[in-house]
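Hi L.,

You mentioned the student needs an example of a multi-chain input paired with its predicted structure. This one should do, with 568 residues in total across all chains.
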Amino acid sequence: MKPAFSVIFLTTLIGAGQGLFLALYTQQSYALFDLLPHQSDQFYGYGSLLALCLLAGGLVASFFHLGHPERAWRSAAQWRTSWLSREVIALPAFMGMTFLYGVAHLAHWHPVLTTLPGGLKIDLTIVLGGIDTLLAFTLFVCTGMIYACLRFLREWHSPLTIINYILLGGASGFTLAAFYAAVAAPDQASFFAGWAVIITLLGLAGRIASLWRNARLRPKSSLQTAIGVKHPRIVQKTQGAMGGSFNTREFFHGKSAAFMRALKPTFLVLVFALPLLLLVSSLSQPAAWILGMAFVVQYVGLLVERWYFFAEANHPQNLYYQTIG
Amino acid sequence: MTQLALVIDLNVCVGCHACVTSCKEWNTSGSAGPLCDERPYDEDPTGTFFNRVQTFEVGQFPNMETVHFPKSCLHCEDPPCVPVCPTGASYKRKEDGIVLVDYDKCIGCKYCSWACPYGAREIDEKQKVMKKCTLCVDRIYDQSLAEIDRKPSCVKACPTSARLFGDIHDPESEVSRAIREEGGYPLMPEWGTQPANHYLPRRKTKIKIHKDELERADNPLKVDGKLPKPSKSEPTLDDFTTW
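Structure written out for the whole complex:
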């Protein structure tokens, strides 16, 4: 497939946004059980607004993918069948709830809604954050399923696609949270950095698994099934048009095999190796600039990773478009 | 239920592209707007087409055949492009099974084209909406046309009648009979899309003659015990004269 930068920015930005929110709420959940010191409302509030900025950036990027952005509102219609439609609903829902969560903190508005038997006070922000966590995972699943549901794009048609969207989004979000904490609440930075290391390692395992799987895929369709002629040697002589067409542009990345081979180690280093090195090195002595660099490196790596993810998928329609004539 | 479809006879198609030009002409002139072309007379021309004729070489010289292969939307009975559409612009008509795009609802996200294994959908680069074969839905029901003209324009254009059009759910229709009796097959059956359009394979008409059938067993000369003249080993008249 031809990677579209609008979709690359959409998926990486909202992934980081979802991860950042999940990081903040994880810390608040720890604090609820007195495992970590409760942070100021500003810490959670401005952190949520930062996540909101990333989500809004992703939303803006997505509009560049559309031929008719002014009709984008229509895309919520088919939520019964279309994962894209479900994502279109889940993204604003998650953004809205993140906004409420952030505003509730900033307005110091946390009335205790209920007290659990152990004396645990559940206030409004805990409830809002809990709902928002569900929405964050819903959005991850919707985003992943957009690709995983296309059964003949076999590189995508796997649970690993969804798992990796969750893990890679989570990794970049927690890394960003570590940087944010190093600036706003330095004593919490190593908590976020520790989780960022764990999720990045899990992400590495997931991505290696999908690379391993995809390298061993054998195509189901062939020229034989594409035109329905049984013969071991079939060669296309012309695709029916001397100029290019949508079919020759949209479904192939247009780069050499050597370029694709070089991308794989590039993103493995940028998404996993370098950020892990930077995160681990700052576990004991968190420094904002190192954590900031870890996030930037990992985000750039994720752009490469997402480009590779799209380019790697081999669409069966390419069987029909191999020779100009 | 009705399922309109094309049946394309690869045994007859000569690869003349008449269906391509006829399709383009009809569908670029309709009320739905043109099928836009970009830089048609310059370098790197490109344009929107509903139908293409491709050519494949099967086998190796001298034991090879050239197969001309017309390709358009197959109007799948279980179309994977329809459920993925977020706006409902892509739909399959209940009454006749034609898969259509509502150009006024399409947002041009291209997701349906990703979901079609056949590459049957093309985005119109100027109008920024997804387009595809409509089976000439603006023609086949047009009461102002003579009944013989109420067929897709590719079918009308084909000089060798390689394209048949009809309802594949009616077992007695011309297309159903062709599929049944001439070995009609769908493309890429492995994806379970159940394409409505079918293709008829290349086929050779052959007759098996055994050696003993070359000579009449009931030849009267044989019955009379006389030998045929000239005998089989002697030269015949054809060996002497040019007619």
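You could point out the following to them. The mean pLDDT of chain B is 92. Chain B touches chain A through 61 residues (CB under 8 Å).

Best wishes,
N.
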